[in-house]
Design goal:
Elements: H1 3-18, H2 22-34, H3 36-58, H4 61-67, H5 69-93, H6 108-121, H7 123-131, H8 143-168, H9 174-179, H10 181-206
Main location: membrane
Keywords: Cell membrane, Membrane, Transmembrane, Transmembrane helix
Subcellular location: Cell membrane
Amino acid sequence: MSLSLWLSLAAICAVGAMSPGPSLALILRHTLGGGRQNGVTAALTHALGVGLYALLTVLGLGALIARHPELFMWVTWLGAGYLAWLGIKALRAGKAGVLSPGHAATTQGQAAKEGLLLALVNPKLILFFVALLSQFVSPEMGLAAKLIIVMTAVVIDGGWYMIVALGLSHSSILPWLQRYSHWINRVTGVLLLLLALRVVAGPLIQG
């Protein structure tokens, strides 16, 4: 893979990771609810999910989805349901009040599970890999180039959300976030529910 092609790949992966969405909301919630360790854990498992999709893409996921559009429809509905469930959880947590540093509202196990699951059922990620990342894959591409694609997606996604978690957990930022955590949870919950509705409405409008 040439340097110019890799730079294009890295730029697309960076834009995909940094765009606001449910992944950012999830990292925020676990950093607020459990501190730096939970935020970083969610970031790492989210990157593992991204890596799985990147691997499937280089192995032919795009071609499979193109041949079986009903598969994408089922994954889309599953993703919408999961986003709605996360949104309801965030809204219910919003009434819990201010978080204190000694009380973790989320566990590291929850952070790990939800980080991975959100990556796997997020329709935005599926569209990203099928529509964009698959453009970098050719039939004659060697194993090394395919590994570069996978690792680029993993490192950029995991690196970005780790930076977010570390930044949010900084001593000068976390107390402010904790003070207004009930409002942040409510806003996050509403956004997740709106994203779920948008995911459901998209295929219906197109159909």
